[in-house]
Structure formats: C-alpha cells, structure tokens
Amino acid sequence: MTFISDEFLLHGKTAASLYAKYAAGNPIFDYHCHLDPKDIAFDRKFSNLTELCLDGDHYKWRAMRANGIAEDLITGEAEPYTKFEAWARTVPYTLRNPLYHWTHLELKRYFGIDELLNEHTARRIWENSRSVLQSGELSAQKILRKFNVKVVCTTDDPIDSLQFHIAIAGKPFGTHVYPTFRPDRVLRTDDVSEFNNYVNQLSAAADKEIASLQDLLEALDRRHEFFHSLGCRLSDHGLETCFADFPTESKAAAIFEVLRNGKAIAAEASEQFASHLMVFFAELDGKRGWTKQLHLGALRNVNVAMLKKLGRDTGFDSIGDWSQAVKLGAYLSRINELECLPKIVLYNLNPADNYVLATMVGNFQDGSLPGRIQFGSGWWFLDQKDGIESQLNTLSNTGLLYRFVGMLTDSRSFMSFPRHEYFRRVLCNLLGREMETGELPNDETLIGKLISNICFSNARQFFSLPLGS
Fold first, then answer.
1. Are domains 46-134 and 140-462 of this chain identical in fold?
2. What pTM did the predictor assign?
3. End-to-end Cα spacing for the chain
C-alpha cells in the first residue's frame, strides 16, 4: 500500500504540476538547525533506526510519553530495537499529528519503504532499514548529499572552539556547513554562580581576562569575529520576549560588577543587563553584515523534575503567552535609532502573535534590501500543515510572500530533511488551489518563480553566506 504518493498533500493537477516543476528539484538551504557538527565532520554512520530517527527527537519523545510509553524506552537504557518497537506501537496513535506524515515521509525517502509503521511491521522495517544503514549509504555526509542540501547552519555557543567546523571546511564534501552565533547563556543572570562560570569559559575562549563590562564586550566581539572568519553570517537568540529596558553604560557596568562579585541582582537589573547586551549584539551583527534571528515565545523546561533528570531540550517545553508587541517594537526601534539594525528574521511560537510579528516587520523595512526584516517560517509546534499555512497566509496578508526566505528544519535529527518537502507540498497546494479558484492568475510561470524563490533562491541571496559562484 502506498501512502506517500506523488500527489501526497497536493490536491489537484495545478498543485501537482507546481510541485514537480518548481519545488521538488530545488536544493535545500537549511539556515537554522541543531545538528551536531561533530557528526558531519566525522561522517557519522548510524547503526540502526533508533540512532537515526529517535535519538534527540523530542517531538517523537513527547508522543511516546502521551501514549503511555515508559521513559526507559524513550531516553533510557533500553535496547535500540525495544525503543524502536515502542515508537512503532505509538505511530498509529499519531494519526492527524504531523508526526504521522513525517514518519512515513522519512521511511519512504531514506529507505524506499512504503509500509505503514506499526507494531506488526516494526521488525520487518527495522531489518530492511538496517541493511541500508550497514551499507554506509546513509552516513551524515551522504544524507546531506542525498537530499541536495547546499547549506547547513548549526547553532553554536560563543565559547565553542568550532573545531568540527574547521575540520569540515578542511575537507569539503559538497554541502556548506557554517556555525551560528547563539549567546543566550550570557543573558542568564538568575544563577550568579552559573553566570560567572560561563563568563570564565568565555574568557578562556577569547583569551581575554574579563573583569569589567568592557572586557566582556571585547571578549564577545572577539568570538563574533572568530565565527565570522569561519563563514558565520547569522546570530540567533531564543527569548521569551525581547529585552527592552535600556540602561546607561555606567548602569550596565555597575550591574556586571555586582554579578562578577558573586552577588545576586534584582529582576529589573537582570532585564537591563540583558537589554544592554542585546543592543551590543545588534551592533556586532550590523557591522559584520550578519542576519539576526529572534525566536520568541517558548516556555521552556516547564517540568522541573524532568529538567533535573534529563536536562534541557528533552521535550518539556510549550508555547508561552507573553505580550510581545511593546518590547519587540521598543527593541527594534532602539537599534534602528542607533543605526545598527541588521537584517532580522522574527519567529514566534504562539500563533496568536502571528499578526503582531508580521505587522512589526513592516515597521522597519527601509528600502535598502528586499525583505530586509522577515517574518520567519512556522517554528517548533507550528511547523505543521496548519501552522505553515497560517504563517504563509499571515505573511501574504501583511507583507510580501514573494520575498520570504522559506523553510528550515530546526532539528537535531539527520532524519528531518523531508520536512522541506512537506513544506514545499503545503506551499504548492495552497497556491495551486488559489490558481484553480481564480484567486491567483492562472500563470504557472509567474507562480512557479515565486515557489522557486521561496524554496531556495531567496535564502541564498538574503543570508550573504560565502558560497562561491
């Protein structure tokens, strides 16, 4: 039985034609993900399906927990096949969850397997996939080549040595792999001991003693410059809301001195310190021609007991419900006044804020570059069919869909590249349907150009990465 057919998610001849001609053949430009560069540098071989499709995938972990699967079979020490069989038992219960689509897209595109995954087919699918994995056809680098991934931008802390990026650059294999500068840890001042430990690590990485705020800023600038030397052109911040309580330089310096002396600070001072650093990060991005990404609205690590047991990024986060507009507007206005507003991509996690962010984008376009400020793709809980269509519709209603930089995986899994196909099918179906109803011109060349740009060309042009000719 074939579930993932050529017409999957494509309702009508127009949508199918658009996808086949203008979307399917485009390369992938994955400008934001959480892949481990070490796996790419060493061209990791995957021993089994559990390693490839379950390890690190907290989308699937959440579904398994909801299906009554014990944690030992999810993140624990159970045997790999036992974990996979537990996932296979869960899959039928994911009907209408995007995981059902993604799982079968993955099996079809990686292994050519058409069967529906369940507890009865689990062993056969496991064995069929194992022979492919043992052949070495799906190592980390070969997966990137198989899916025609031209660019991967990982997510990296300023203190990272980037040794694996250096190794990748020394042995090109066809995919450009670049770091992304994500300095979130230096903004976390609620735990003074942890903060100072991080500053000490930053000091070592930058080879710069950090005794004052100016020392801190110089150390961050050095690391930013180092990232730039390895092709990095993007920064990223994962924030609940923007920070927008801007202190004077002397006030920020005094706050840092208190922290460096090991003393706790009030919430107001923490907000001011983070606000000061976020302006500084905009200055760094602006002077080096980078793009800043702001991921707003995630309520992280809600289950404190499981945070203590398993750590961060293990599937215990949700959508937050903070007010975004005032602080976001104040932050963007501040860095615009200071003439250090870089290119920006805004992502939100609460669908109620779609129009807030999409209309905020329009306040800071300046005619210097098409789509200079972007309303980013559906993110995390919103990167499914309904969320993708909502983002596309919101962007279309308030801005220029034609200038959109398209989809990303935001994933820790090498099994996630079919999410680009999923997005492209949703996009082509949306546009194809409107062509057939007369809401868009019945001009395949016109609409096809828009699709091709969104799938690859816009991102290639926008992010200014050193890709060569």
1. no
2. 0.97
3. 44
